[in-house]
Amino acid sequence: MNVKDAVAKRFQQLCVERGIRINELANLSGVTPSTAYSMMDPRRREISIVTIKKFCDGLDISLGEFFTAPIFQDLEQEIK
Length: 80
Description:
single chain, mainly alpha, 434 Repressor (Amino-terminal Domain), 5 helices, globular
């Protein structure tokens, strides 16, 4: 799994845990729903750290809390 897919899965997990949908996460984070849905699109290969931070702010968690999840432990090499 690459880092972008791991980020999307992590946000999906957090939304399930909190009982919210992706568009609600967007509203909490001050970003457009299209930005949130774009992050979930497997064809999109990149997401900015600023956007990740906004989503974390909307969920009231730190970047450290977000990235310490086990999903980030065994990511594939991004350099190809």
